[in-house]
Amino acid sequence: MDYANSKTQQDKKDFWRTAPNALYDAxxxxxxxxxxxxxxxTDYSVSVADSCITEEMDALSVQNWFDLVxxxxxxxxxxxxxxxxxxxKAFLQKAFEQSVNGFIMMMLPFAPATGWxxxxxxxxxxxxxxxxxxxxxxxPVTGEIAPGSKFPTCFVLFSPLSQVCxxxxxERTDEKKIAKLVES
Length: 184
Description:
Order of helices and strands: EHEEEHEHEEEEEH
CATH class: Alpha Beta
Strand content: 15-25%
CATH architecture: 3-Layer(aba) Sandwich
Low-confidence stretches: none
Structural class: alpha/beta
Radius of gyration: 15 Å
Mean pLDDT: 85
Shape: globular
């Protein structure tokens, strides 16, 4: 899926950061206060979890993501992954493989009509969380919220649970509400 109207420089496309309201919603949907692991942390992003896999560590070559989880999260390990846009298919495959060891919540383009979705999400994911609109992202250079995302996103949960994939629609938390929570 390529978005012709995107004005992002090619070398920056993989570095858009997750906005605070998206992270808040993902944690709320799973009922966790924090993620145990950020599986795709970059120099442009601040880790959103207690542990992280950096670009230099290369998440796609780490044998077991959950070996990096701290003891406080061993009982119910939940990893976060907003994968590099250009590597979403490889990260989807890796997340599915890693899900035998824990739960992985991914933020992905919502594209159920595509081949990559049908082969890597349908029949593999435990839950697809579909928001009531589009999330904005944080600019990789300025860190500011960049309104007007060109594509819809969703959260996809992979887990060690074996079941038919369910779809859950939800209302996004307003960005301004999260900003107030962070300030207080």
